[in-house]
Amino acid sequence: MKIILASASPRRKELLGLIVPEFDIIESKSDELLNNNLSPEEQASYLASIKAKEVFSRTQGDRIVIGADTIVAKNRKIYGKPKNKEHAKQMLKELTEDDGIHSVITGLCVIVEKDENYEEYNTYDEVKVFLKNITDEEIEKWIATGKAIDKAGAYGIQNEFGVFVDKIEGNYTTVVGLPIHKVYEIIKNYI
Description:
Order of helices and strands: EHEHEEHEEHEHH
CATH architecture: Alpha-Beta Complex
CATH topology: Maf protein
Helix content: 25-40%
Largest sheet: 7 strands, mixed
Shape: elongated
Number of helices: 6
CATH class: Alpha Beta
């Protein structure tokens, strides 16, 4: 059965490769606009769903299409990808203030068509992230790497920024962008 990742993210590609050796990548062309009426959990699930459905609509045959979207939230405020360096700095300051605790939520949508039967699985996984205190100088240095702009919350746990993460409560792969433990549970009977 053909497996399709509805994302061009190199992080998601690497994570999916841990559980399936071969798959196609088709980037979703859907708009990723936030809906202010949705909770952070609903938002992540909604965005994952529209990505998977858009790619599913452009493909045929027996297949599994996997869509995911990761957002960062603190006190119910959603932090997507920063617009620029100044926005990234503002995000990181907000995420580290008070106790430095926030959530990383990855929505997941898996659509399966097998023998003309259609199944759709929508879920999300949430991880609590505990950041250390970060100085303005450290924030500036991180942003100067250029790696803050394309990531929700303006950071990636899997690279240099990881030194500022004190601990997490939950699955590491969820923070990186694809909760492979949930993906595996859904697709294991098809692969």
